[in-house]
Amino acid sequence: MVTNGTDRLGFLVHDAARLMRRRFEARASGHGLSSAQWRLLVRVVKEEGVAQARLAELLEIEPISVSRLLDRMEGLGWIERRADSSDRRVRMIFPTAKASDAYAQVKSLAGEVYAEALAGLSQEERGILVKGLSTIIENLSDGETSSCPTVKTAESAAS
């Protein structure tokens, strides 16, 4: 059977993500945060005041796991929890100055990793790659809101 390489799509996407994550983690290791903690920190900085339960949804991990991550990060001075003004049972998560500073540094590191990953691709090819991946995400999202701000699902585009 002759294919245009699409039969390897899942492996290619998985391997590309794994290698970028590994390169990023190696560069960001000086801050002492695990991969899961970095993912959480990025969400908290980008969505300041996010509810703890929403973080679990966004990160696709169990609420108890998020709670444990937050306990550790709060103890290390990365985040602070506050009660929601309208519902004291809801815990809102905010980054500390330490987290915001680290995020700025890490954003730069991520940019370096992306540049390395995209080396050898023209600007047009880069645009096509991003558009293609965005389309794949939209096709498979089943109405979910994407975690990527540039990807709009049919449901989120309609609202």
TrEMBL record:
UniProt cross-references to InterPro entries, sorted A to Z: HTH_MarR-typ, Tscrpt_reg_MarR-type_CS, WH-like_DNA-bd_sf, WH_DNA-bd_sf
Lineage top rank: taxon: Bacteria
This protein's UniProt keywords: DNA-binding, Transcription, Transcription regulation
Signal peptide: none
Residue ranges constituting the HTH marR-type domain according to the UniProt record: 6-138
Name of one Pfam family that matches: MarR_2
Protein's recorded name: MarR family winged helix-turn-helix transcriptional regulator
Taxon lineage: Bacteria, Pseudomonadati, Pseudomonadota, Alphaproteobacteria, Hyphomicrobiales
